[in-house]
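Q: Methylenetetrahydrofolate--tRNA-(uracil-5-)-methyltransferase TrmFO, please. Structure only.
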Amino acid sequence: MSNTLHIVGGGMAGSEAAWQAANAGLDVVIHEMRPKVETFAHHTGKLAEMVCSNSFRSDDHEQNAVGLLHWEMRQANSIIMAAADQHRLPAGGALAVDREPFSAQITDTLRGLDNVTIVEEEVDHLPGEGNWLFTTGPLTSPTLGEAIAHETGADRLAFFDAIAPIVYADTIDMDVVWAQSRYDKGETEDERKAYLNCPMTKDQYEAFIDALLAADKTEFHEGETATYFDGCLPIEVMAERGRETLRHGPMKPVGLTNAHKPDEKAYAVVQLRRDNALGTLFNMVGFQTKMKYGAQTEVFRMIPGLENASFARLGGIHRNTFMNSPTLLDGEMRLRTRPNIRFAGQVTGVEGYVESAAMGLLAARYAIAELTGATLPPVPATTAMGALVTHISGGAEAKTFQPMNVNFGLFPPVDLKGGRKNRPARYKAYTDRAKADWQAWLSAFDTEPA
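A: Structure for Methylenetetrahydrofolate--tRNA-(uracil-5-)-methyltransferase TrmFO:
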């Protein structure tokens, strides 16, 4: 059997998979259609380009499931986590990344490996021979999507992702805006001041909501149903659910004190998070939108402190394709009808940068074991990795399957001796158990990285 692994798609999952396989001694060919074939969301031809937020979310590996996933990936020599740590930006308790050098480092690292070849081409079918891993992500090309649908005998499922705008820092009015992380969270001064805060009075908030609801929106193509991933709802969709929804969501004013007017309590607050190491760009936290470009400029300049804002990137919305994985993939992420093909990343129904990369890591390790004759036991469902792969390979209800971020609800219940414990104790028990089980699984993987 050939020891070449073909990986289709050079996003988070594909890049991580290529790194894992190459370090185990396999020959790897990455098939990436960019920049020859462009997408709505991508702006470069680099690998692991961050197209939406620049945040990997919480880095708390004791109390948060995604932080635990960060920890597990670091233990497994993850290239994605190493680059994220290298290009980390202040973000309170979150892991935010300077997106351009992050992507450049991963691209340069993989291009520099003798056993990795990058081919700029679109793969539009499911090959009958060879060892293949498809990590084409939410922007799977229409032609390949049709091939997958034809093979699986099912209509493609899809939802919509929205992208938030990015603002030039030197156009933000710092006489109105102040720097502070919510509840002053963070161990350093940079972390405690990782966010810029734009305060609103009640009248300003009401006027903003009116403008948001009245603004021109992007229309969907005929036959498309506007189903959104709940973790990435456009702000106008949230506003349509109730005028106070945003004030209790991304615009909540809690845990913040206006440095310019400490005695005045804001009715609502828009937060901006640094988007690059230079501090010249800030993204609007939770402000994914499907408003048309002209409307965005008008509406967002109603926000105090952003009256003269210039935008490095405006928001947008794109179709996000995923498979009904519980009916199609086995426990090692192989397509049941074609076991020479694996799938990983967002196309399998996990949501988020880290979750996608994690499934790429896991799929690669399954492929490494198969191609080298190594023995690889099932990943414990008690780990973050195991919880995710169990969810997509049969743990979820196929009829209602939807993309999912990692969360403790996917884990088997933990047995807390001594009766009911509080939430911090329960989450700590989940993460302690996961860490022990993940380390034991890694030690059983008998193909060591080079």
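A: Brief note, in case it's useful. Residues 423-444 form the longest helix (22 residues).
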